[in-house]
Amino acid sequence: MKVLMFGWEFPPFSRGGLGTACYGLTKGLTNNGVNVIFVVPRGAAEQGSHVDLIVADRLYIDNPKLKLRLINSPLFAYQSQEEYNNELKKLKQKLGPGFNEEIYGRDLFDEVEKYSEKAKIIASFEDFDIIHAHDWMTFRAGLKAKQVSNKPLVVHVHATEFDRTGGNPNQYVYNIEREGLHAADKIIAVSNYTKNKIINHYAIEPDKVEVVYNAIEPNKDMQIKRDIGESEKTVLFLGRITLQKGPDYFIEAAHRVLQFDPNVKFVVAGSGDMYGRMINRAAELGIGHKVLFTGHLSPKEVKKAYQLADLYVMPSVSEPFGITPLEALNNKTPVIISKQSGVSEVLKNALKVDFWDINEMTNKILGVLNYPSLNDTLVSEGSEEIQRFSWDTAAQTCMNIYSSLQTVGI
């Protein structure tokens, strides 16, 4: 079986969980004998070890049947219009007189359309059985690939526009999502939480949506964690600093925790449009000296952050799945997770709280930090539990979906 897969990031160049999920899923598929061609929009991500990566900005440049202009697309995953404009400005400065206005998108959505046109060309030349598209930026690409190839289309929803915007969707993005979901032959959701959003907000029949939970790679490089009572305790937030991830609730909880236990420091790892606002809020609350903002971390730095933390908190407002709690437990760090998350459906050995309930979040943070037995139990039971989250299992479920589409002759 051969799968033509469209995505927007691939490790080691990732900005969030989408890249991690794409890497794990493609590895699981190839472990099960599936050939995967993964299409990405930037040359930066061409270091795949187990998949054949086609970088869309250098698409078929050496193919005598097709001549395309080299385009270094400024797109990346989770991008807003403002971030796109900033990337485009950097590209103009870098290329100088070599920058050609005609070959770059006027805006984020124009760039998405350009990428979809390249997908159409790829589908005309590649040999594949199934099309698999991840999230809204690739849905148009999947649709055009389906049009020229007449092959089944599977769209994989890692987050909806309702998750990203707190229920105030951009109409253009929503329209693309809705078009892709209705045109797809099958939809994969990363949780029942996400499946229900797809059904309710996009008018999709339940039978069309299959749930495939995310997983993690086993940690083969585990350091010995220090004892929780050795020094100042550390609580970690790690993720995009955006409305969806609830960093503001984390900062408010940090303020309350410090009123009861000043021997705690808080680490906010990541970047996003709320970064500056969160720094200012910590200063307003008088806890700026107790909160470290690290910015974006490399994969090695992320692992180190988990291992140095005594507790990981994921206070997401709307989290379709949430790989980070699994990663934290994989590094022997206990977790508190939002009830408004897909991972809360399947992770039993974690403390759970409504994202808005600052008092309860505070109580549970203090409980984990001040009761080593609770900390130890969450780690030991959670570490054992996550062993059943396998990318091979997720891949086998996807393969069953692929086979069902081929069987019915879609």
* Total DSSP E strands: 13
The CATH class designation of the largest domain is: Alpha Beta
Structural class: alpha/beta
Question: Given the C-alpha coordinates, what overall shape results?
Answer: globular
* Rg of Cα set: 22 Å
Number of helices: 14
Which strand order spans the largest sheet, edge to edge or round the barrel?
3-2-1-4-5-6-7
Quick one: biggest sheet? 7 strands, parallel
Q: Helicity, in percent?
A: 40-55%
Secondary structure layout plus pairing:
Layout: E1 2-6, H1 17-31, E2 35-40, E3 52-55, H2 81-95, H3 108-125, E4 130-134, H4 136-149, E5 153-157, H5 161-165, H6 171-183, E6 186-189, H7 192-202, E7 209-211, E8 233-238, H8 247-260, E9 264-269, H9 275-284, E10 291-295, H10 299-308, E11 311-314, H11 324-330, E12 335-338, E13 351-353, H12 358-370, H13 372-385, H14 391-407
Helix pairs in contact: 1-14, 3-4, 4-6, 8-12, 12-13
What does this molecule look like?
By secondary structure, the chain is an alpha/beta fold. It has 2 domains: 232 residues, Rossmann fold (3-Layer(aba) Sandwich); 156 residues, Rossmann fold (3-Layer(aba) Sandwich). The chain contains 14 helices and 13 strands. The protein has a 7-stranded parallel sheet, sandwiched between helices. The two termini are 15 Å apart. About 8% of the residues have low confidence.
Descriptors for this entry?
410 residues; alpha/beta; Rossmann fold; 2 domains; seven-stranded parallel sheet; six-stranded parallel sheet; globular
Brief digest:
It is built from 14 helices and 13 strands. The protein has 410 residues and is of the alpha/beta class. A seven-stranded parallel β-sheet has the order 3-2-1-4-5-6-7, with helices on both faces. The protein has a six-stranded parallel β-sheet with strand order 10-9-8-11-12-13, with helices on both faces.
